[in-house]
Design goal:
Layout lengths: L18 H11 L2 H9 L4 H10 L4 H28 L8
Length: about 90
């Protein structure tokens, strides 16, 4: 993946731009929009948060970071497909 990872909810780039820092940002923000995004990915925000707080290691951060990376990849793919369809970089440009 190229470039820094940005929050899929608010677009903010975490300190290092890594997906794990983005996950930390999402847990730290914890507002309704960020919680709803996590839930929409099929995860339980509260269960991940509890596990992170009570279990050694960064398992919950890593789980959420992977989901964020996949979401960013899908977003980039949709953007590229949009460029292809609108004729700003596809094979059908004339």
């Amino acid at each position: 993946m190229s470039g820094p990872v940005k929050c899929p909810v608010c677009g903010r780039q975490a300190k290092t731009g890594s997906s794990i820092d983005c996950a930390r940002h999402m847990f730290g923000t914890g507002d309704k929009q960020h919680r709803a995004w996590v839930e929409a990915q099929g995860l339980s925000f509260i269960d991940l948060l509890i596990e992170q707080a009570t279990t050694p290691g960064n398992k919950s951060y890593l789980i959420l970071a992977e989901v964020i990376e996949k979401a960013q990849g899908k977003q980039a793919e949709r953007k590229n497909q949009g460029e292809f369809i609108t004729g700003t970089g596809g094979l059908h440009d004339h």
